[in-house]
Design a protein that fits this description.
Elements: H1 2-18, H2 20-23, H3 35-40, E1 53-54, E2 59-64, E3 70-74, E4 86-88, E5 94-97, H4 106-116, H5 125-142, H6 151-178, E6 185-191, E7 196-199, E8 204-213, E9 217-222, E10 225-226, E11 236-241, E12 244-249, E13 258-266, E14 269-280, E15 298-299, E16 304-305, E17 307-311, E18 317-320, E19 325-334, E20 343-348, E21 351-352, E22 359-363, E23 367-372, E24 381-389, E25 392-403, E26 417-422, E27 428-434, E28 446-453, E29 459-461, E30 471-475, E31 482-491, E32 494-495, E33 505-506, H7 510-518, E34 545-552, E35 556-562, E36 573-580, E37 587-588, E38 599-603, E39 610-619, E40 622-626, E41 633-634, E42 649-654, E43 657-661, E44 671-680, E45 687-688, E46 698-701, E47 709-718, E48 721-722, E49 732-733, E50 745-752, E51 757-762, E52 774-783, E53 786-787, E54 791-792, E55 802-805, E56 813-822, E57 825-826, E58 836-837, E59 850-855, E60 861-867, E61 879-886, E62 895-896, E63 906-910, E64 917-926, E65 929-933, E66 937-941, E67 952-955, E68 961-966, E69 976-980, E70 983-984, E71 991-996, E72 999-1004, E73 1013-1019, ...
Length: 1488
């Protein structure tokens, strides 16, 4: 039955996941009542659903599964029920003790939630009891009873069910209100963060909205690494407001390309959502050439031919070790087929890349991104993105260079790379690597190999001395364990950083590894068969075979062999023996421990000597025969260094790259590759062009500086080391290579007549690095489907992009094509024009504008220019309309840039989307209407080129205004072309152009209103580098003001003249200038009269700091007026003044006299700080002051209320002096301490007095400070329960009877009553609540007056705090009642009774109890019964008596009066001793 419930629960859980959103509103909190529930993981779900059936104690819910089965689910106990810590079954029998679950942090809660998903069952006593209970209830609930019902009964039962459902809903709502915890539900993302693509340098925000109760905690992660926004406020800002959360990423760069995860966590669980952020950098690349493979074909599955277009391509990229680099392209697949996505595969050096911790790939549906985490030199290479569709594939490639990280120690080599493991065996592996490109300040001496066992962080060095060879056998591995390796290079300067670690390798037999890779041959059946031991066990193994030397260097020799055929089931190990050439003595090499692998590396062999080697097998049966000897092997390097490569040849490629080719090294074995280095001509610094060796003999060196001369050299490398460097190449200047221009486009007809046609076309997008020198036009005739041969129309190159084709025949059809020419040659022909008929036009509207081109391409704007149409129509052209659309939009995407006609032949288009591509066209207008649009221009990518500079305006020191434009990409023949309003400037009298190198300056000869307009500058032989500057009337006025300031400069002041009073009442006038020369002169003026240095005035001018000062000993009546500093520094002048007159002057004069009097006072004993007060943390009041310039003979006198405090007075004990501080410790202040306190200082140099009035306002100020200290010292409110009620209290350091303390309940003042009282006991402030009720729950506030607003201490007496306090009060009250009413013996019984035999004994005990107790008498632990011998009475419920008429010695013993009621039992014990006088006399006689 338990198993069936588990199956049902699993089905329920699956159904719950499918309907998660619909059921979340019905979820209630799991009641993890004990660790027992957590450990047993009961098969019955604890999830509470809306109930439809009730019992007397618990709720049952019937839930249907997908198959129609019903599963009974038991709801948890109501939270209002008092918890019990005893686990009981239905019969109320205790079956175990339950341990409450502690409240844990988020990590623990997460662990609990994860562990809750595991179906683990412990077959313990408690588990069996609980399982039987649940199964019994489930069986009863699932019992189906079938009975026939009438319609009346059915209707009545339906009404009853509706009524019951309504009551249950009301009960559920009531329980939710009374139990807020039941409202808890796990986090839910209402709005998930969305992935974004932004440009570098922009700021983006990720938003999400999360619901859940308790309120979830939000954390943001980048590539699974927690983002600490508070630690990096300059980069991240995380905000959370009303369940809406955001993460702002500022100034985005490539390193911000990542997957961002937001995690929401509360006690109900943790949920997360992921968004991808891609940061794009300006990229441009050549279009795919005609030879690039694009094998598109028809896809029969979808009935279309997929066309792939790759845009927004990544360019050659540079990164440094440790950085993160992202590559990406936008892929457009046309046509779009629903639910079809292409396959995107990334390659490095033609090897497919697989996702790993170093490589992350992402495909968003339109953009493919590759992210390289923590770059290493192994990541360098040619990266190719291949897009596979069902019509073929397209590729795009670019190189990624990885530079070495900054060196920690100057001169050390950089880290080796590409560490790999080969030939792994049980205790042996061969580690290889590649040498780095940079050896450091000296040649590499060798390498250290480190190993680390997987799962640990301890690295152990494998070789004591460095090895020169880039290959090393590592021995001593532990079979079955996994290892990773790294390598460090060593030279004279030190050791490099370690390389990237290798892939993990397991030390195991290759055959075992092959079996593991192949997987099990058959599924496990659970049956183990035992067979007798094979007869070969215990047999000595045979000889190894094929013993050979696989590697031999001067550092080590590696042997390999094949295991013997006869070796038994226990496996074999090996001993290796060597023999020096010329001897017959064989020595065992590994005497301590045989090796397990059929490989062995021998070290410590003498270089140049010859050795022979052989191998023996061994097992528990013994050591076998030796193998055949290898023959003599001479120790030494078998691999030679490669020879130097051939002469390198450097050829210009682009403005930042050069193509280097060289001759391959001859007779080289095991070539790893080549390293290329470059050096600027005139320097000796060589920089590596690649940090990963390349095997080809041609390499494109990127990242060079445009216009710089470089030489190149190459060196080869193999495992033995580096070759000698090749000879240096010839110097080459880094400039773009000149090539043929591209094809012209858009050949259109502008005008037609009887014997001529006017053609126009668009210049090629790429001019090949040189200006277009002209065009050639070809034509051919067309008759129906028959076309003629192409003929040249012009033998001299055309200098414009239009041509009038004359001498044509009327009504004949023609086609035209155009070729462009630059200094490198003639381009390929354009596409043929449409078939055009030569006949006279009758069109009235103008033709299409021509010569469309763009300048000043930026992220959000572009300037489009054009020329007038060749055909104006019937009237002249009076304006133009510019249209725009995104390149990917259809023909319906065209829209006008402006509404009103534009009479200019240019327009700046703004509001573009950065990174989007646009096309443009222009239409001309005359009085007859608007003509046909021009040929389409574009697509134009709205993107600012890296390094783009704008025209800026400069005003030099002479006031000359000029515009400056700089270009860093100048090529041979490049020129700066300035224009105004995009027209060539014919009036050269307005501007003077001065060009020096890559900077051009346009100087205004005489700036005036005639110069207003837009000035533009473009650079020829570049990829459209241009900029413009618009000079407005306001801007011109501002520039003229600046020019005037430069022509007639004013010395700038950091601070205007100011005045300050110094010691002795001296006056200082001062100012400070921002800058001045050593020739600067100052003139000091008072009331227009120059003053000079003398008895009254002292001047100072510090030219290094610019501070100018003038001092006066005092201010007199005659000094009222204006003080001025006049400065002259070359042609610059400056003046600053300060006016001192009227009340301001008289106030300053008083302050000066006061400062002088103060100085005189301080010549004798004086008060540095006058008498004041302070209150200590112990609430003692101290009067204190500081004195200065005192001597031992200085007399110090204290007085109170003008009465001197003598040494024999009691108050003199309160006076204390420490160094220069005097204190009077009043202690705990009272009203008797009020008065006027004075301190006097006297000696032969003078006297001083300080007074403090501790009366009225002074006394109140001290009391307010005392109240503040007391209020601050108050502790948080605590609660304690007594038998009478609940006490809230706070402790203070000290209490003063004048301190006002108020108590509030729910922010309302508490009125004193017999039930609720407040007061003070010692240092305890308390509020007593006698016989508390539910009305006493809530927030309590204690308000302590602190002299200002008061200090409040708040305690919330509700929830758990109320329950615990109220429960403790009830417990103490019950205990007190029990103690008062407990049955007890209150008196009347002696401890010992001695009585003579034969006498009568009558004892009465007083008892008390409420209710009246039960009474019994006990003798020697046996209860007595009233009979003839013992007469027992209990009267009035208070008096219990026992009477023994005639006692005998048998009545001696221990008696007890036992009283008992429901509150307790008590026994009054006494001893009865019966004696015989005769026996006593006999005993005394015998003693006598």
């Amino acid at each position: 039955m338990s198993e069936s419930l588990q199956v049902m629960q699993k089905q329920l859980r699956q159904q719950h996941h499918r309907h998660h959103h619909q059921q979340q509103q019905q979820q209630q909190q799991h009641h993890y009542e004990s660790s027992y529930y957590l450990s047993t993981k009961s098969s019955v779900s604890q999830q509470a659903f809306s109930t439809s059936k009730t019992t007397s104690r618990r709720l049952k819910t019937s839930v249907k599964t997908e198959k129609g089965q019903e599963v009974v689910k038991l709801s948890p106990l109501p939270k209002r029920a008092k918890r019990t810590y005893l686990a009981m079954d239905t019969d109320k029998e205790v079956i175990g003790y339950v341990i409450p679950v502690f409240r844990a942090n988020h990590e623990v809660v997460r662990g609990l939630m994860e562990s809750h998903d595991e179906d683990v069952t412990e077959e313990g006593i408690n588990y069996v009891a609980m399982r039987n209970l649940f199964v019994r209830e489930a069986r009863e609930a699932m019992h189906v009873k079938v009975e026939k019902k009438t319609r009346t009964v059915h209707v009545r039962e339906s009404a009853e069910r509706l009524q019951l459902s309504k009551k249950m809903d009301e009960w559920s709502e009531f329980r939710k209100k009374m139990n807020p915890d039941s409202l808890t539900h796990p986090p839910e993302f209402i709005v998930k963060p969305r992935g974004q693509t932004v440009w570098e340098g922009k700021t983006l925000k990720l938003h999400c909205t999360v619901a859940g109760w308790p309120k979830p905690r939000i954390a943001w992660y980048k590539n699974n690494v927690l983002i600490d926004a508070k630690r990096h406020p300059e980069k991240y800002t995380a905000e959370s407001n009303y369940n809406m959360h955001s993460l702002e990423i500022k100034n985005c760069d490539f390193f911000d390309t990542a997957q961002y995860c937001v995690s929401a966590l509360n006690v109900k669980g943790e949920y997360s959502s992921v968004a991808t952020v891609v940061v794009k950098r300006f990229q441009e690349g050549d279009e795919a050439g005609p030879l690039d493979p694009k094998p598109h074909g028809f896809c029969s599955e979808h009935g279309v031919t997929f066309e792939t277009t790759i845009i927004d391509k990544f360019e050659v990229a540079f990164g440094s070790e440790g950085e993160t680099l992202s590559l990406g392209c936008t892929v457009i697949i046309y046509p779009t087929v629903k639910k079809y996505q292409p396959e995107v595969v990334w390659y490095r050096d033609s090897v497919p890349l697989k996702p790993s911790k170093w490589v992350h790939t992402h495909w968003s549906g339109e953009r493919a991104t590759l992210t390289l985490i923590h770059l290493n030199k192994e990541d360098e290479g040619m990266y190719t993105m291949r897009v596979n569709t069902k019509s073929g594939f397209d590729t795009y490639s670019a190189y990624v260079f990885v530079r070495d990280a900054d060196l920690e120690v100057e001169g050390v080599p950089v880290a080796p790379l590409d560490v790999r493991c080969h030939d792994a065996n049980k205790d042996y592996v061969v580690v290889t690597w590649k040498q780095p490109a940079v050896e450091g300040s000296s040649a590499i001496l060798g390498y250290y190999i480190d190993r680390c066992e997987v799962g640990t962080h301890h690295w152990a060095q494998c070789n004591e001395s460095p090895v020169k060879y880039a290959r090393f056998p590592v021995t001593g591995l532990v079979e079955g364990r996994s290892y990773v390796f790294r390598v460090r290079a060593l030279n004279k300067a030190g050791v490099s950083r370690p390389s990237r670690v290798s892939e993990p390798v397991v030390a195991m037999d290759p055959s075992d590894r092959a079996r593991l890779r192949a997987g099990p041959s058959a599924p496990w059946t659970g049956i183990i068969k035992f067979t007798e031991e094979d007869s070969t066990v215990g047999v000595v193994p045979g000889e190894p075979t094929d013993v050979v030397v696989t590697e031999a260097t001067k550092s080590y020799v590696v042997l390999a062999w094949k295991p013997p055929g006869q070796r038994g089931h226990e496996g074999v190990m090996y001993y290796i023996e060597k023999c020096i050439s010329g001897t017959d003595t064989w020595q065992r090499v590994n005497t301590g421990m045989p090796v397990k692998s059929p490989r062995f590396a021998l070290f410590d062999l003498a270089e140049g000597k010859s050795y022979s080697f052989r191998v023996r097998c061994c097992n528990s049966a013994g050591v076998g025969e030796a193998s055949v000897s290898t023959g003599e092997i001479t120790v030494g390097d078998k691999l030679d260094l490669p020879s130097a490569p051939g002469n390198p040849v450097a050829i210009r490629n682009t403005d930042t790259s050069v193509v280097v080719s060289w001759g391959a090294s001859k007779d080289v074995k095991h070539l790893v590759g080549y390293y290329i280095e470059c050096s600027e001509v005139g320097t000796d610094a060589w920089v590596p062009c690649n940090n990963k060796p390349v095997k080809k003999t041609r390499f494109v060196c990127h990242g060079l500086t445009t216009g710089t001369n470089y030489v190149f050299r190459v060196k080869a490398v193999n495992a033995a080391g580096y070759s000698q460097s090749s000879p240096n190449s010839d110097a080459v200047v880094v400039q773009a290579a000149i090539s043929l221009p591209g094809k012209p486009t858009g050949v259109t007809l502008l005008e037609a007549a009887k014997d001529y046609m006017v053609l126009a076309w668009t210049a090629p997008a790429k001019n090949g690095g040189a200006d277009i020198r002209g065009y050639f036009v070809d034509y051919r005739t067309v008759k129906g489907d028959v076309v003629g041969k192409w003929h040249e129309m012009n033998h001299q190159a055309l200098t414009t992009a239009s041509y009038k084709a004359e001498n044509l025949k009327e009504n004949v059809f023609y086609q035209f094509q155009v070729r462009a020419m630059n200094m490198a040659g003639v381009s390929k022909a354009s596409l043929a024009s449409a078939v055009l008929e030569c006949k006279e036009w009758t069109i009235t509207v103008p033709g299409a504008p021509v010569g469309l081109h763009v300048l000043e391409v930026r992220d959000t704007s572009v300037v489009v220019l054009w020329e007038s149409p060749a055909f104006n129509g019937r009237t002249a052209v009076n304006g133009y309309y510019l249209d725009i659309k995104e390149a990917s939009a259809g023909e319906k995407g065209w829209k006008a840039v402006h509404e009103k006609v534009n009479k200019l032949k240019y327009m700046k288009v703004t509001g573009l989307k950065a990174g989007a591509s646009y096309v443009f066209r222009v239409r001309a207008q005359n009085l007859a209407g608007v003509g046909k649009p021009s040929a389409v221009l574009g697509p134009i990518l709205a993107q600012t080129r890296p390094g783009t500079k704008e025209i800026y305006v400069d005003v030099d020191d002479d006031g000359v205004i000029s515009m400056i434009f700089e270009c860093s990409e100048m090529s041979e023949g490049s020129e700066f072309i300035w224009s105004k309003n995009y027209k060539a400037m014919t009036d050269t009298s307005r501007l003077t152009i001065v060009t020096e190198g890559g900077k051009s300056r346009a100087i205004f000869n005489s700036p005036s209103m005639e110069d207003l307009g837009t000035f533009s500058c473009m650079v020829t032989n570049t990829d459209g580098i241009s900029s413009s500057y618009t000079l407005t009337e306001e801007g011109l006025k501002r520039l003229l003001d600046i020019s005037h300031d430069h022509k007639f400069p004013v010395i700038p002041f950091k601070n205007e003249m100011a005045m300050e009073l110094l010691e002795k009442g001296r006056v200082r006038f001062w100012t400070q200038v921002e800058k001045c020369t050593s020739a600067c002169q100052v003139e000091y003026v008072f009331n227009d009269v120059i003053v000079t240095q003398g008895k009254k005035y002292t001047m100072n001018f510090n030219q290094s700091t610019g501070i100018i000062e003038m001092f006066m000993d005092s201010l007199e009546v005659t000094d009222e007026g204006t003080f001025t500093f006049n400065l002259v520094d070359g042609k610059a002048k400056g003046t600053t003044s300060l006016v001192l007159i009227g009340d301001e002057f008289r106030e300053l004069q008083k302050k000066s006299e006061f400062e002088r009097a103060e100085w005189v006072r301080k010549q004798g004993p004086h008060f540095v700080e006058y008498l004041g007060f302070t209150v200590t943390e112990e609430c003692n009041v101290l009067l204190k002051c500081k004195i200065g310039n005192v001597k031992p003979e200085t007399e110090i006198t204290w007085s109170k209320d003008s009465i001197e405090i003598a040494e024999d007075d009691e108050d003199s004990q309160k006076i204390e002096r420490k160094d220069s501080e005097l204190t009077f410790n009043i202690g705990k202040i009272s009203k008797s301490d009020a008065g006027i306190y004075e301190v006097f200082l006297r000696d032969d140099r003078g006297k001083d007095k300080s007074t403090f009035s501790l009366t009225d306002a002074g006394y109140q100020a001290v009391m307010n400070e005392l109240f503040r200290v007391i209020a601050t010292s108050s502790s948080e409110i605590k609660v304690v329960s007594t038998e009478h009620g609940i006490i809230l209290y706070s402790m203070v350091t000290y209490y003063n009877e004048e301190l006002r303390v108020g108590w509030l309940h729910k922010d309302a003042k508490i009125a004193a009553s017999e039930r609720v009282k407040s007061g003070v006991t010692g240092e305890q402030l308390w509020l007593k609540i006698n016989e508390p009720t539910e009305k006493d729950k809530g927030k309590y506030t204690m308000d302590i007056f602190d002299g200002k607003d008061g200090v409040k201490r708040v305690f919330d007496l509700s929830g758990k705090a109320w329950e615990e306090a109220f429960e403790e009060f009830q417990r103490l009250k019950a205990a007190a009642i029990a103690e008062r009413n407990r049955a007890r013996v209150v008196g009347g019984l002696p401890d010992v009774v001695a009585i003579q035999e034969g006498k009568s004994l009558n004892l009465t005990g007083n008892v008390w109890g409420e209710p009246a107790p039960e009474v019994c008498w006990i003798k020697n632990d046996r209860e007595l019964v009233s009979d003839e011998r013992y007469k027992l009475k209990f009267e009035h419920g208070k008096f219990a008596s026992i009477t023994i008429a005639t006692v005998t010695t048998a009545d001696s013993g221990k008696y007890a009066l036992v009283v008992k009621n429901k509150y307790g039992t008590e026994a009054g014990e006494f001893t009865v001793s019966v004696y015989n006088p005769d026996d006593e006399e006999n005993k005394e006689g015998k003693k006598g």
